[in-house]
Amino acid sequence: MQTRVLIVDRNPGLPEVLRSILPELDLCSIQGGAATEMALEGFRPMVALVDLETRDVENALAILRAEGVPVVLVSEEEDADSPKVANLFSRFGIVRFIQRPFPLLDLGDVLQEAHGGKRPGASVVQRSTREQHPIPDDAREAELPKAAAAKDRPAKKRKKRRKRSQASGPNLMKLLTREWQLTEQAEPWTVLGLPSTESPEAVLVAGRRMLNRYEPIAQDENAKEPLRQLARQIADRVRWAMDNAKAPEPESPASKVPREEMIFNAGLESMGGNDWESALRFFRKAHKLAANEPRYMGYYGWALWKVAERQGGEEQERNRSEGEELLRLCDSLDPTIGPCQLFLVRVELQMGLSDRARGRVERLRRRGEGNLDQVEVELRRIERSKKT
Description:
alpha/beta, six-stranded mixed sheet, Rossmann fold, elongated, single chain, 6 strands, 3 domains, Serine Threonine Protein Phosphatase 5, Tetratricopeptide repeat, 59% helix
């Protein structure tokens, strides 16, 4: 069985290289984090290989975390001990970190281990497990629950570290300072490291996990006051994020304007400004998007007729014929659209069909349609010309 891997990497040539040397991998590749959600619609990865330096990387990590996809993070510019890597590990639950360059032949074992397969034989892998955690040693007590830390560390090292304050090292101060810079002005979802589509339960879990990391530091009497104050500030920001991380309200169907209606409205604006060429383009596009909508047919037909007035020869005849056909089709589908009925009246007058136009005006008047004064002026003019 192939291992399905999503690659989020700046280098578009990486997937082809991996396919040639690691045929056991089923790969899907994107060059930026913004396309992660779209990629997951048609591809369900077992593990993701994410380049730290790719654009929108935090968006990709948040979506992968929400989907439960294990992530192997790679970087050329950062190492395992950098505050940036430590921050991403704590926020997004990354399972492995690899420093570039690394042997590509070993990558298959690394990816299989990340999703629960065999253990890797590659010594180049810098693991996120407690035996080699990317967070500095002085921050590990704050990062891991005490019971887990006590269980997994060798007795001698555990005894040695107990002599130190869990929150006394300069590395931790640097780490928390960076965390505060990232969260001070951030939106609630960013503070929690979650996409805005997450459930209230996920918000609660993420918030509690972060509070478990910062509150012990804030309450540590052996820690220096600046460090405790910084931890309190971050914890307060996390509580604020938990209170304000609300899913966006779904847009009301009544308030959402369909794209074709927006295009049609743009055509009405052009028509109001007597810009018939632009109106024709907009009405044609709206009709193309919703071919069965009678209003779009009628206005498109009328715009064709108006544009034809400035043309001549075969082009004029063709546009007039198509415009009349569209208006009559609109009339047959929905004869209650007042403006389109008025358009037909004017077309019929120009075609010399005054009796048909007069009958249409009378029907409009019985229905209480307004704006008929100009049409009746034209009718009287036509009738006078017939008498003479």
